[in-house]
Amino acid sequence: MKPYNNKAWWLVLPVFVLVAFSAIIPMMTVVNYSVQDIFDPSTRYFVGTEWYREILADPRLHDSLLRQFIYSFCVLAIEVPLGIVVALSMPRRGLGVPFSLILLSLPLLVPWNVVGTIWQIIGREDIGLYGWILNSLGLDYNYASNPRDAWITVLVMDVWHWTSLVALLCYSGLRSIPDVYYQAARIDRASHWAVFRFIQLPKLKNVLLIAVMLRFMDSFMIYTEPFVLTGGGPGTATTFLSQTLTQMALGQFDLGRAAAFSLIYFLIILLVTWVFYTAMTHNDNKE
Amino acid sequence: MAEIRLEQLAHSYHRAPSQPGDYALRRMDHVWEQGGAYALLGPSGCGKSTLLNIISGLLAPSEGRVLYDGKSVNDLTPQDRNIAQVFQFPVVYDTMTVHENLAFPLRNQGQSRERIDDRVREVAEALEIESLLARKARNLTADEKQKVSMGRGLVRDDVAAILFDEPLTVIDPQLKWRLRRKLKEIHQRFNVTMVYVTHDQLEASTFADKIAVMYEGQIVQFGTPRELFENPQHTFVGYFIGSPGMNLLDIALGETGLEFDGRTLAVADSIVARLRDREGGRLQLGIRPEFVQLVAPESAVLQGYVDLVQDQGTFKIVDVRLDTPSAPVVKARLGEEVIVPEGRTGVHFPETWQRFYVDDRLVEITHETL
């Protein structure tokens, strides 16, 4: 038998410590909170799954969860196709390349709260370009009082902020397709649509997977931008999950309930991401 | 099906070409006749692929015209030229099955389902990929993919021509030979013009009836494999075709005749006279190693030492270092049964097989005396 020792564990230790402090310990703290009712540091009761049952039955959660899904769905439905179209229409060589790359990167460099502030101003009907144009066209637009307008503004803001990311990812995917594929398609008399459908889209699949997951996770956790722009209003029209959670945890200091909420929130994101991933890589394993 | 004619064709990748070196293709006129099997042979970077892409329309020539059956196709896209091209590396549509891949060019033409099915089966059978038809193209091996690529080129039977750009690069040697035979069969069956680009002379001569040898952007000779072997029109053809290539010796016209490294070579007066007519710089004598004879030292004008003998199994290659001042090496290819002299030997070049080149171009000489 080979001599055997456990020294290699020391090499794993740094990673283990890092992951423990960055993920495991905070999460276990949350788990700990979620099963207790805490009045003050010396007074606490174990309540089991009571918080979970209460949260799952809470209409506030139902409402913002539904809102959140609709929002993320809209974000993906707009940003992914739009990003692909932008990437397809970007120049492939020449001076236009660096120019368009810089232009597309700009929104990504703006901090979230600044994006919220920018759109708060742009959306105003008196001094904001966007609000003023809509009102001049005869549309009665006011994001502060009309829930529909608030929704549209939050969506447009997200599209403005994040479509670039999808476009840049797709552009890098398109650039990696060798010219010979396009040449073969011309020889085979493929239409533009067929080139997209059978050459570009299959080659984009991997970057699209990343784009969809990133955009889903980010939009599902969106907080700062709508918070700055609408503060969740009018009413609760644009109050998404993260804001509901923050109100519960910090506004009402309802730690147990908020902890149970965040764990459920986390599991939903994990589950949906897993479903996306499995669905999109499913075909790879087939003959 | 068409005859392809190149008229005053030239191409440069430079925006403002000024010197010959700027041209990837130097001005040329050439005809590929309808139904022929042709090879375009040359070293890497000689312009073969450029020429092929110009014929298919993927590249627009900077000068001259491409004509199909006498009609200029310069302004037509590859789609409208109705031409098939197979590339060096396999190009398959990953998400489609092999059947769908093969059917793709026909579907784009809007052919009927039955007709597509028939053609796909026929081509799949010819390429021995029937068993793969239902599989996704993504999961195939490199040579299976390349067969599918070739199949897409062969599946349309109304094409003007099929162009192959070194299609067997990724295929292993055993299969290479079989696929070449297959292509030849397909050529005979469908009677379609085929142009096959390669840098391998064996590949060229087994596939093609006539070979165009390209060198530095020019077609330096167009002929049957035998013509290329016996009568290289250019020193490059002599050197590139044959294994080993032609021996080329620098010679000069002296007072009394042809001089090589201070020795006077015995050649007919008519040849010397013919060479004197030709103005020009570099004069070379070429002789194929197959025709070099090793004889007794006293009976030859040139002598040397056997430097190296390589036994290739069915023949031997003998390097003889001549004992003239510049000590060049002459290669001789001898049959297995020939006994190679050891040490000093005489070297004889039979007059029938001597070729003379002025500035790399062959000087035509009829050997009526022999």
List the helices and strands and how they pair.
The complex is a heterodimer of chains A (287) and B (370).
Chain A: H1 9-34, E1 36-40, E2 43-46, H2 50-56, H3 59-89, H4 96-109, H5 112-122, H6 129-136, H7 147-175, H8 179-187, H9 192-220, H10 224-229, H11 241-251, H12 255-281
Antiparallel strand pairs in A: 1-2
Chain B: E1 4-12, E2 23-32, E3 37-41, H1 48-56, E4 63-68, E5 71-72, H2 78-81, E6 84-86, H3 98-109, H4 113-126, H5 142-154, E7 162-165, H6 173-190, E8 194-198, H7 201-207, E9 210-215, E10 218-223, H8 225-230, H9 235-240, E11 247-253, E12 258-260, E13 263-265, H10 269-277, E14 283-287, E15 293-295, E16 302-311, E17 315-322, E18 329-335, E19 344-348, E20 355-358, E21 361-362
Keywords (chain B): ATP-binding, Cell membrane, Membrane, Nucleotide-binding, Transport
Pfam family, one (chain B): OB_MalK
Domain ABC transporter (chain B): 4-241
| Helix count, DSSP H or I runs of 4 or more residues of chain A | 12
**Form type of chain B:** elongated
What's the helical proportion of residues of chain B? 25-40%
Question: What class would the helix/strand composition of chain B place it in?
Answer: alpha+beta
* Mean residue pLDDT of chain A: 88
Please indicate the percent range of residues of chain A in DSSP E strands (runs of 2 or more): under 5%
Shape of chain A: flat
CATH class of the largest domain in chain B: Alpha Beta
Order of helices and strands of chain A: HEEHHHHHHHHHHH
The quaternary state of the protein chains shown equals: heterodimer
Number of strand elements of chain B: 21
Uncertain runs of chain A are none
β-strand number of chain A = 2
Distance between the termini of chain B: 45 Å
Counting helices, strands and paired strands, the structural category of chain A is mainly alpha
- Report the average pLDDT across residues of chain B: 87
CATH topology of the largest domain in chain A: MetI-like fold
Number of domains of chain A: 2
Largest interface: A-B, 17 and 26 residues
* Main β-sheet description of chain B: 6 strands, mixed
Helix share bin of chain A: over 70%
